[in-house]
Amino acid sequence: MRIATFNVNSVKARLPRLLEWLDESGPDVVLLQELKCVDDDFPRLEIEEKGYKVETHGQKTYNGVAILSKHDIEDVKRGLPGDDEDVQARYIEATIQGIRLASIYLPNGNPVDTEKYPYKLGWMDRLADHIRNDLLPLEMPVVLGGDYNICPDDRDVYDPDRWANDALCRPESREKFRTLLNLGLTEAWRALHPHTIGHYSYWDYVKGRWQKDEGLRIDHFLLSSQAADRLVSCEIDKSPRGKEKASDHTPVVVEIADA
Question: For residue range 39-65, what is the model confidence (pLDDT) as tens digits?
Fold first, then answer.
């Protein structure tokens, strides 16, 4: 099964690029983030015409996540447990072909001197609790893909010194990310590219960041041991980022072997 994660940065604004990429790449499952639309406004028909079933968890103007699949999508759950007052649409999970998958849009956390940073760290604590208490006890392959808004270490950012105090790179953020890994999860891309430096999944629109390849690697797949045992490949597909009216992110695609 080929599974992609793609922060589209407004699904309606990027729809031509998304449909084009679905035709070119044809993954079995796509985990989308930053839809920026409510469920009723999601371009369901256009994507269904490409052969995908669709489940969304949308929000007006901000956030929003979705799962697209060529196979049946079962047991869908929307929202990250642990805070009934959190209305931000950042998490959706479902089972496809015996694999439990989640599309994650983790909070950015900037500026760090506002309430946004404690919200990010608290959200990561809730994610860790959900993985520990709800997902890992399933003892089935679990694939958690999305925009984590974390550069795991300095190899994943073009200018570590400049970004050292950013919410994506602060020690507290990276510690929370390591907490997820310490639950027994495998970060798919880094596991297969242990010594690679300077490969990115996001480039800001400003200051020619894309043209100068000044990016960040913040889109990740975390795999349970049952999924990691079946890991075949994980690659960053840079081709969509160079096109007109592209998202500032580019897809990451993981392949999980059949059981």
Answer: 999 999 999 999 999 999 999 999 999
pLDDT at residue 259, rounded to an integer: 86
| Domains in the chain with CATH codes | 2-256 (3.60.10.10)
Q: Which of 105, 117, 148, 200 is catalytic?
A: 105
Look up the pTM and report it: 0.98
Residue with tokens 């060529």, as numbered in its chain: 70
**Is-contact 65 33, C-beta < 8 A?**
yes
What value does the CA radius of gyration of the chain take, rounded to a whole number of Å? 17
Q: What is the pLDDT of residues 84-113, one digit of tens each?
A: 999 999 999 999 999 999 999 999 999 999
Give the tens place of pLDDT for each residue, 117-154.
999 999 999 999 999 999 999 999 999 999 999 999 99
pLDDT for 59:
97
Question: Buried b / exposed e across 210-223, counting CB within 10 Å, b at 16+?
Answer: beeebbbbbbbbbb
Sheet with strand 186-187: strands edge to edge: 74-78, 91-96, 99-105, 142-147, 219-223, 186-187
Tokens of 238: 């840079």
Catalytic residue among 52, 91, 117, 147: 147
- 105 carries an active-site annotation: yes
Q: Which residues of 23-57 are buried (b: 16+ CB within 10 A; e: fewer)?
A: eebebbbbbbbbbbbebeebbbeebeeeebbbbbb
Using the structure block, give the residue that is written with the tokens 């960040």: 216
Task: Compute the distance between CA of residue 189 and CA of residue 193 in angstroms, rounded to an integer.
Answer: 6
Q: Collapse the DSSP code of 224 into the 3-class scheme (helix H, G, I; strand E, B; otherwise coil) and give the result.
A: coil
